[in-house]
Amino acid sequence: MAVPVAAVRNVTKRFPGVVANDGVSLEFHAGEIHVLLGENGAGKSTLIGLLAGMQQPDGGEIVIDGQPVNIASPRASLELGIGTVFQHVLLVPSLSVIENLMLGGPWRRKLLRGPALARFRELSQLLGVEIDPDAQVGRLSLGEQQQVEIMRALWRGEKVLILDEPTSMLTPQGVKDLGAVMRRLREKGVALILITHKLVEAYELGDRISVLRLGRVVGALPPERLRAMSEQEATDAVIEMMFGTVTHHERDAEILVGRGRQAYRARVVDRTRAPRLSVRGLTTEATRGACPLRTVDFDLWPGEVLGIAGVDGNGQKHLAEVLAGQRVAASGTIILDGKDITADAVPERRRHGVRYVTDERVGEGTVGSFSVATNLVLKEIGASPFFRRGISDWDYIHDHARALIKRNDVRTPSEKTPVGKLSGGNIQKVLLARELNAEASVVVFNKPTYGLDLQNTRLAHERILAGADQGLATIVISTDLDELLEIADRIGVMFQGHLAGIVENGPDVERKVGLLMTGAKAA
Amino acid sequence: MRGTGMTAEVHVAQRGAPGHEGGREIVASVLRVAVPILLALVVGGIILLILGKDPIAYYGYVARRGLLTWGGLQETFTRMSPLLLIAAGLIVAFRAGIWNLGGDGQFLLAAVITAALGPALVGVLPKALTLIACVIASAIVAGLWAVIPAILKARYGINEIITSLMMSFLGISFANVLIKLFFWDPSTTVPQTRTLPVEDRLPRLFDTTIHSGVLIALAVVVLVHLMMTRTAFGLKLQVVGANPAAAVHAGLNVAWLTIATFTLSAALIGIGGSVEILGVFGTVRADWNPAFGLLVVPLVFLARFNGYAVIGFTLFFSALMIGGDSAARRIGVPQHFVLVLVALLLIFLAVVEYLDHQRRKRIGA
Fold first, then answer.
1. What's the angle, vertex CA A266, arms to CA A260 and CA A270, rounded to 5?
2. In this structure, are A167 and A227 located in the same domain?
3. Closest Cα to residue B310, out of B12, B6, B14, B33?
């Protein structure tokens, strides 16, 4: 076998509390598209970070052309001929294409347009694309911007090209164009590394597939095996590797989190009654960087936990926001207890008992510089009994806060402490205290345990289950399938803005959800 | 910028903190202001030395003329009223994260409306009603002048710093045009409005030259402070200012709040212009533009958008202005040296704040 252009050997990278890469060994060959698959948190991004020089491995080595190297910085990575295209476009929108490409040289050097244009033409030919070098980057389509990113990645050498979920932001046509560019680069002998969640892409473009799970390589399909497989066979093999059989899964989970997976407790949900929440034909307008909803329908009964799985960026955020009332529905209806609440804004929905625990705890859920007490009434500003005729009753607000802090075990020096000084787990407790009270009837949780440590994760799960047991209609959006398997009664899967299907939690659900997550039809 | 706007909310929320802790906090916050003032005076003095002037003489003269003589003190207090009203307007906007820099245009338009309306109404209406009508009309006109940048920001997200500044230039020119085309007092050669007779202006306080506008200004500043700290409306504005995404999340009508805030801010600044005419000048000359609006901006930042603190800074600055004016004539230090002192003060305040922040981080508070 030929010497790989790039390889990682037994690479280990630890972050506080997590082993992100655990003895990973992979080889990348010239003229080959190597697909890395894995769930969120499987360690793909960390691996990319190591190759791109953003982090250094704690153990193991990176080998380029047979020589062990130390990639101390992103610049060093580029000098070695390793280019990385990240998920989000990192270009200066107000500058022209050629100006963007000329960035990053030594500051004291003059910008030479002639040689830059020559290199630009060389790369245009290599990629087989046509872009005006003087076009302003902000005016290009996302697909074209990505092509510029690829050029920038290859600017100083075209040995290895890493693409981190390159299709997530693209239109179908953009995806097709990108595929053509990738195949062309493969023919020219570039080693490509493609990170993706989508099995279809992996099969279509990949020469070799490696699956990462919990920081380790758990399986690989070398080119000779992959070529011999049909799409269905390859998909099944990969799903098996990604999610494992239940026995494997349990052991791994135990090793990772140090606790056994709780058995799924089936709650008795009476679905013969009228649903509490009925969503029909719900769509939203597309916004920058977020996938809109495309005709979402579902029913939700009291006492039920509906899990929403799916790869991040498939419309989950819009679903949560449109249900909470902070995003306008373009069409469709939301019926709560027989009442149409589609046109209601956040305050009215809140009065009707709709609650939203956002995943952006610091970004939008709280005002970091405001006190815990103020944040606890953030959605009740102007409402009695905290405010009387528009006048704040700070004593009442502080008393109320002290009571909630005690009941919810929020660890804070005082109710007057700025909420931004608390830990993530305690901020989440503040949010839960604000959203979950006696008047709640429908609660939407968006990634409720994202970024929390184990103990707070468990507490949050207990809280969600306790709420459902008391009759709350609950939606939990999560990219962590294990979490949903643990707490949800049914699991729906978001894929490209559609609710691709809803399956009952139970045996074999992982396989079904896995298929739905990657865009296959419900099995 | 945002960061400073939030501290006041925290301070209010922390009132009644345990005794000695609170005491230490007060000492610390006094030091945070006193040290930069001292540094600014020292460095300002060094600059004066370089210019070949005697800093002790300059500071002594400024203090005497601005604060320590009865005449100077009266002038200082008189100067405070427009500055305080502008500060009140800026606090409302800045706390909500709206950078209304169109104060000069709003101020001047309001002044012209008052100068046009006052002499016209005074024969028709009783004196008190005339004054009230002038203030209200000026506030409305100034508020309307801010509606365009407000809507542009609320609807299209266009940066209000640019639009309000542009509207300010337009407002200043428009005020000039209004005088020359419509309100020119025919008995004057220099274009200016008719003059409100001295006896029909805002009443003087006791036996002084200070007009009662300063009381209005103080009341407005206190009311604005109470509004920001004790009312739901004020809290909503602060949420919008501190974290617009959280405001959307909490269901606040950000567009409406933006427009309301902008208009209110401009209206308060307009009252400043009206009071200055009703209290001091009685008329507006076409070339008159005191440009107080942008002068007050640093004061409001120095006070960290706190209404009570801004009273102190305004007093300090007014004394500097009045004293610096006289000093410019007597000692030959340019009048604008006062602005150098304010700039130095801002720089040192930022430096001290940074060092204090680092210290807090070190002790892990």
1. 160
2. yes
3. B33
CB atoms inside a 10 Å sphere around CB A115: 10
Whether the pTM exceeds 0.80: the reply is no
The total of structural domains in chain B comes to 1
Helix (H) or strand (E) holding B80: helix B70-95
- Count: domains in chain A: 3
Identify which of A364, A381, A416 has the shortest CB distance to residue B248. Answer: A364
Stretch 8-67 of chain B: residues touching chain A, C-beta under 8 Å: 9-10, 12-14, 17
Q: What does the buried/exposed string (b/e) look like for A1-22 if buried means 16 or more CB atoms within 10 Å of the residue's CB?
A: eeebbbbbeebebeeeeebbbb
Q: Is residue A123 part of a domain?
A: no
The parent domain of residue A75 ranges over 6-89+157-256
Q: Write the pLDDT tens digit of every residue in A86-137.
A: 877 788 888 899 988 888 776 677 778 888 899 899 888 888 888 889 988 8
Q: Report yes or no: A219 and A210 within 8 Å, Cβ to Cβ.
A: yes
Is B336 or B226 the better-scoring residue by pLDDT? Answer: B226
A405 plus A522 within the same structural domain: no
B7 CB neighbours in chain A (<8 A) are: 369
B158: domain CATH number is 1.10.3470
**What ipTM was reported for this prediction?**
0.80
Give the CATH number, domain containing residue A508: 3.40.50.300
* Among A9, A185, A166, A10, residue whose Cα is nearest residue A81: A185
End-to-end CA distance of chain A: 39
- Confirm whether A147 is domain-assigned: no
Decide: helix, strand or coil at residue B231: strand
Reported as a single tens digit per residue, the pLDDT across A452-480 is 765 677 788 888 998 998 889 999 998 77
